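Morning F.,

Quick status update on the modeling queue. The single chain you submitted on Monday has been processed. Sequence for confirmation:
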Amino acid sequence: MVLIRNIREDDEEKFLSMLIQLDNETKFMLYEPGERKRDIDKIRSIIKDAHQSSFLYIVEDDGKLVGFLSAKRGHVNRIKHSAYIVIGIIKSYTGKGIGRRLFNELDNWATDNGITRLELTVMKHNERAISLYKKMGYKVEGVKEKSVVVDGDYVDEYYMAKIRAIKV
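Structure tokens below.
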């Protein structure tokens, strides 16, 4: 059974292994294969930060981590109403509604924490992800030209955001 839950401290090794698997199987993530260091202290820091001021949910199937969604909240007053999102799902688990479920959990967290702006970047040719983001209410706000280099070629990214209703 696929479970979506908040990350725990004892997930550190599994989380790092999942990130490395994502690096190896998709060109849509930031790191290239072999580029990510096996730095467990960095992972511990990410998990600690997630419990203090950010959001980090993981997807678990039979004890194996197969996806995640993180949202880092702005750290100063002028941007603390916003959060920057990163999502990754192991290839064999895509197309099963997991991304939608993760975004629904994110919306609950955003409501509970007064977040009115959720934002992300996505490579322009990642049509599947863009389709999901649009279904979840995100809109393209602009283009980051030559934002990343993949296999020696410059790739543009869309800057997308969702503005949530402000409850007073």
